[in-house]
Amino acid sequence: MKFASMPGTGCHYMQFCEKCGALMVPTVGEGGKKVLMCRSCGHTMAVKGELKVSQNVTRTPRDKIVVVEDESVPMPKTAAVCPSCGNTEAYYWTVQTRRGDEGATEFYRCTKCKQTWRYYGGR
Ligand SMILES: [Zn+2]
Ligand SMILES: [Zn+2]
Q1: What is the widest separation between alpha-carbon atoms in the chain?
Q2: Ligand showing the shortest atom-to-Cα distance for residue 17
């Protein structure tokens, strides 16, 4: 059984980027057309058939840091001292920079005050 596309349900339409294989998300492209955009490399594809696009989808500038606000995704916690309140526990995640020599940038978010900061490798 394949989960990549489920005709008939109408609400779960999943498409993977033909360039990098990442999951593509529906968004509104040039001229208000519905397109699928790769969150990883920014590649876009035209949408075939009907696809529901939520009104709140906005285009993300590719060089901006995307802060994950989706609270439904559990983030791992680690021991880190918050620069804002001194709390010693923070959520963390990593973002791979496009320049390979820099490695991944680690982000932390305080579990208490939600302060977010980043840490550049070098452990
Ligand atoms: Zn891609
Ligand atoms: Zn804090």
Answers
A1: 52
A2: 1
Domains of the chain are 1-60 (no CATH), 77-120 (2.20.25.10)
Residue 26 host element (H or E): strand 23-28
| H or E stretch at 15 | strand 15-16
Ligand nearest to the CA of 87: 2
Please give the distance, rounded to the nearest whole angstrom, from the Cα atom of residue 24 to the centre of ligand 1. Answer: 8
> Which backbone phi and psi does 120 adopt, to 5 degrees?
-95, 95
Q: How far apart are CA 107 and CA 123, in angstroms?
A: 14
pLDDT digits (tens, 9 = 90+) for 38-96: 989 989 888 766 545 555 555 655 555 555 555 566 778 999 999 999 999 999 988 87
- 73 C-alpha to ligand 2 centroid (Å): 20
pLDDT tier at 16, thresholds 50, 70, 90: confident
Question: Is position 102 annotated as part of the catalytic site?
Answer: yes
Is pLDDT above 50 for 6? no
pLDDT higher than threshold 90 for residue 111: yes
